[in-house]
Amino acid sequence: MTVTDSTSPEATDATEASDAAATVARLRRTFDSGRTRPLAWRRRQLHGIERLVAERESDIAAALAQDLGRPAPYAWLGDIASTADEAAYARKHLKRWMRRRRTSLPLSMLPGRGFYQYEPLGTVLVIGPWNYPVYLTLGPLVAAVAAGNTAVVKPSEHAPATSALMARLIPEYLDPDAVAVLEGDAAVTQALLAQGLDLAFFTGGPGIGKKVMAAAAEHLTPVVLELGGKSPVIVTADADIDVAARRIAWVKLLNSGQTCIAPDYVLVEESVRDRLVAGIVATVREFRAGEPATQPIVDDRQFARIAGLLDDHGGTVALGGGTDAASHAIEPTVLVDPSPDSAVMADEIFGPILPVLTVRSVDEALRFVNDRPKPLGLYLFTGSKAVKERVLTGTSSGGVVVNHLAMHCLVPQLPFGGVGNSGMGAYHGEWGFHAFSHRKAVLDKPAKPDPSLMYPPYTDRKMALLRRFF
């Protein structure tokens, strides 16, 4: 008999697979009992999420500071208030979302009654990211429990303090027989996906998203992928340049630029470029007054990747450009007219670097955007209704915000999701309820009448009548 070392990779993989199988089996038993279907149970879970972020705000802020160096005000704005609002909105509107919806029927189906109803999918998986590890983990969980599912949550291992906190708090505030947390790395995710879950919800980058989708495909597990991409900002000559500069700088600085819907680059008409760049630079200096020169990056690997983007970009550095490898931190940086073929313009930056590119017209800006993969967000600053309509109809993106950036993420009445390379599926509010539900069609027919016209033999006369009614 071969004895496997308990510290070997094989033993670790076997343990993770065993833990994943046992956890999913336990959650499936709970789901099969019917416990998660009533409105009252779902509302209790949503209220539990509200209580969790309200009562443990200081603990959450401390964990975010440890993992990401995020100040407490930004922890409240980015992770705590947004999560509480999402849960409260779902709790208040859930009864209406759960109602059956009547439909009309064609003449050929009368007499009868048609309707559809939403039912939970079963046991689902939420794979959280590290950049907003509370909001982007608990937000999908809001949708999962609102729809009546049991769920296993896999927090990001790249935010270890927050992951450990979620593992401790979620069973305390939610039904521990219906919602479980499994910590770990990608091997844990793969072990969970191997269980053939009823849906996998992933937030992260397109590269890992492809791996999640491939593993899910082995079991025909449906996926919702919230990815990212290079979200552009178009600034026209008739925009309010001062407002545009302030809002672009503010959103870019959030979480050191490590936000999936952060502005990745700016396309600005030539006549106002210098004003816009000067405004962004002045705003960054104003907002960062009294703060360290650099902003923290989550780890050494991400730091090295982002710092490398500052090499050979071919543009002019209008602000920043410095790095600190010892603390893996980077100065907020504005690059003017880098080469479109440079590394900084190739992939999502996900850091505090903002390229600003000059365009001669809105049409040139649209061509630039449309020649690249579809982004998660697209932002437009303009005073023209005609330009707004041209951009809305002439581009494809997960969402659009006019004269601001990223705020659509905080509107539960709007679907939030990507398209193409930036993801598939949407959530928030009722859209999240739909994503985690099956919309089941029901046709209810009486036993009588039961006309012989429907049954063989099909004579010429019967066929003539059938062709009239169907």
Concise account of the structure shown:
By secondary structure, the chain is α/β, with parallel strands linked by helices. Helices cover 42% and strands 18% of the residues. The longest helix has 26 residues, at 72-97.
Tally the beta strands: 21
CATH class assignment of the largest domain: Alpha Beta
Main sheet summary:
7 strands, mixed
Under CATH, the topology of the largest domain is which? Aldehyde Dehydrogenase, Chain A, domain 1
The shape, in one word, is globular
Tally of separate helices: 15
Supply Rg. Answer: 26 Å
Q: How many distinct folded domains?
A: 2
CA-CA gap between termini = 69 Å
Helix percentage range: 40-55%
Protein structure class: alpha/beta
CATH architecture of the largest domain: 3-Layer(aba) Sandwich
What does this structure look like?
- With 470 residues, this protein is α/β, with parallel strands linked by helices.
- The strands form 5 sheets. The chain has a 7-stranded mixed beta sheet, with helices on both faces. Strands 5-4-3-6-7-19 form a 6-stranded mixed beta sheet, with helices on both faces.
- The N and C termini lie far apart (69 Å).
- The model is unreliable at 1-6 (pLDDT under 50).
- Helix 5 (135-146) packs across helix 14 (429-435).
- The chain has 2 domains: 9-227 and 423-442, 3-Layer(aba) Sandwich (Aldehyde Dehydrogenase, Chain A, domain 1); 232-417, 3-Layer(aba) Sandwich (Aldehyde Dehydrogenase, Chain A, domain 2).
- It is built from 15 helices and 21 strands.
Produce the secondary structure layout.
Layout: H1 9-32, H2 39-55, H3 57-68, H4 72-97, E1 101-103, E2 113-120, E3 123-127, H5 135-146, E4 150-154, H6 160-173, E5 179-181, H7 186-193, E6 199-203, H8 206-217, E7 223-226, E8 232-235, H9 241-253, E9 265-269, H10 273-287, E10 295-296, H11 300-308, E11 316-319, E12 323-324, E13 329-330, E14 333-336, E15 353-359, H12 362-370, E16 377-381, H13 385-394, E17 399-402, E18 416-417, E19 423-424, E20 426-427, H14 429-435, E21 437-444, H15 460-469
Parallel strand pairs: 3-4, 3-6, 4-5, 6-7, 8-9, 8-16, 9-15, 14-15, 16-17
Antiparallel strand pairs: 1-2, 2-21, 7-19, 10-13, 11-14, 12-13, 18-20
